Amino acid sequence: MTKREKILLKAAVAFAAVSAVAPVSNAMHIMEGYLPAGYCIAWGVICLPFLIAGYISLRNRIRENRRNMTLIAMAGAFIFVISSLKIPSVSGSCSHMTGTGLGAVLLGPAAVSILGLIVLIFQAVLLAHGGLTTLGANTFSMAVAGPLVSFGIYKLCGKMKVNRRVSIFLAAFLGDLFTYCVTSLQLALAYPSEAGGVAASAVKFLGVFAPTQLPLAVIEGLITVVILIGLETYAGPELRSIGFLKGSIRNEKGGR
Amino acid sequence: MISIDQLAYQSALRQNSAAGKMAYAWMTLVVCVAGRSLEVSAAAFVVNGFLVIRKGKISPLRYGKMLLVPLAFLILGTVAIIVNISEIPLDAFAIRLRGWYLTGSRAGVRKGLELCAVAMSAVSCLYFLALSTPVTDMLGVLRKIHLPSLLIELMLLIYRFIFVLLDTAERIMTAQKCRLGNRNLSTGIRSFGMMGSALFIRSVKRAGALYDSMEARCYDGEIRVLSRERPVRKKEILMIGAWEILLVFVTLWSIMK
């Protein structure tokens, strides 16, 4: 073996060992303590306006009908459970959904910002995915940026009369991809490359996480479509109660 | 189901004041992350390990396994920081690939390793908190520092629902597995999606039933629960204070050096 082959072999062994040892880790949560303090605070501050808007929207919904309280909480727990379960028969150590695209399509981006924050806190404290100091950065990528893109694309496709299933797929898929890009950019801003600065660093982070995140985004899109097809078939009244199927087929007032 | 939650309830530190534990974990976390000093990180890592295993009586094996959870992110992220792609080789190492180099500088490698140390010590702080304080106790503290009550109630309800839904989801997934529902990727995706929609329908129904039962018990828009008062002991305040001051001094000393 030449020296280079040896290095390659070692790298391959190390990579395999990591995939075997690390049982459940969601690669797109920035881990605890990984960002410098200044960035932690800055991302938290950037999230604030979105969180305040989400808080006001949730408060109004609950004032409108107190029943919405348990419904919103149940939706939050649903997002947590969907994103904490490992997708079966998908290889790789980090095969989890984000669930935020689904949440954004069902509940709207404002509600998802607050629910996403709560879900991220519980993921940090109960599952050790993500962390408390990186909460701001993770909230921005997973609970603000991703859902906003998902919701925007879903609405845009609705306006352009794209097939409903295709638009749901695109919303979840692109929302997931956007989350992954934002996370890579957050890491790159905090750790610019010695050769090439932030841009080169962003390319590196994108490249390192791409092998797990790209297939996962496709899977997330497919699963979201399957879930919504199931819901539209069996759960018309429930969907109307959260204000989802408003514009379609029958027009009933939400909130029973 | 969620092992961290069970361990938190079993911990021997459970009966200590939640406010004290949270203050300790938060302050140590902030000093570690803001100070970025190797000495402080090592000290915090050791002390947190001691507190979790010795004082909290959590099995060292489980704690060790949990420390490995963020490993994949740590290694991938650090590789991306240390390794550069450039036309000019840097001083620590360089692998030639068709005129380009996969290369890194000594300073970069040192920074990457330091980052790993800081991140692992921060993770140990998070684990100390997660493995000694159940979520309900944490929510009690958050209520005392006057976070909006809507947020706290949502968190309380979500926390309660997580276990109900997780149980349902696991039952559905077991049933699917029995019927070869995850034979290959396409059935796996279909099964997971079907589980998701069934779970959602059930959760909406449960939310309605729960509201009815709460209203039958005079729910008027606010959930009030009595929490047992566990004030922070003077000895704990002194020890936490002394520890944090020590950490700050060590950080300053290592910056001056």
Which helices and strands appear, and what pairs or packs with what?
The complex is a heterodimer of chains A (256) and B (257).
Chain A: H1 3-21, H2 37-64, H3 68-84, H4 100-107, H5 109-127, H6 135-159, H7 164-190, H8 197-234, H9 236-241
Helix pairs in contact in A: 2-5, 2-6, 3-5, 4-5, 4-6, 4-7, 5-6, 6-7, 7-8
Chain B: H1 3-10, H2 18-35, H3 38-55, H4 60-67, H5 71-82, E1 84-86, E2 93-97, E3 100-104, H6 106-130, H7 135-144, H8 149-178, H9 185-216, H10 234-256
Antiparallel strand pairs in B: 1-3, 2-3
What is the beta-strand fraction of chain A?
under 5%
- Give the oligomeric state of the chains in this entry, treating copies of one chain as homo and distinct chains as hetero: heterodimer
**What's the N-to-C terminus distance of chain A?**
71 Å
Give the biggest sheet of chain B: 3 strands, antiparallel
How does this model look, in words?
The complex is a heterodimer of chains A (256) and B (257). Chain A is mainly α and 256 residues long. Chain A has one domain (34-244): Arp2/3 complex 21 kDa subunit ARPC3. Chain A is 73% helix and 0% strand. Chain A has helices at residues 3-21, 37-64, 68-84, 100-107, 109-127, 135-159, 164-190, 197-234, 236-241. In chain A, helix 3 (68-84) packs across helix 5 (109-127), helix 4 packs antiparallel against helix 5 (109-127) and helix 6 (135-159) packs antiparallel against helix 7 (164-190). Chain A is globular and about 70 Å long. The N and C termini of chain A lie far apart (71 Å). The model of chain A is unreliable at 18-25 and 247-256 (pLDDT under 50). Chain B has 257 residues and is mainly alpha-helical. Chain B is built from 10 helices and 3 strands. Chain B has a 3-stranded antiparallel beta sheet. The longest helix of chain B is centred in the C-terminal third of the chain and has 32 residues, at 185-216. Chain B is flat. At the A-B interface, helix 1, helix 2, helix 3, helix 5 and helix 8 of A face helix 2, helix 5, strand 1, helix 6 and helix 8 of B.
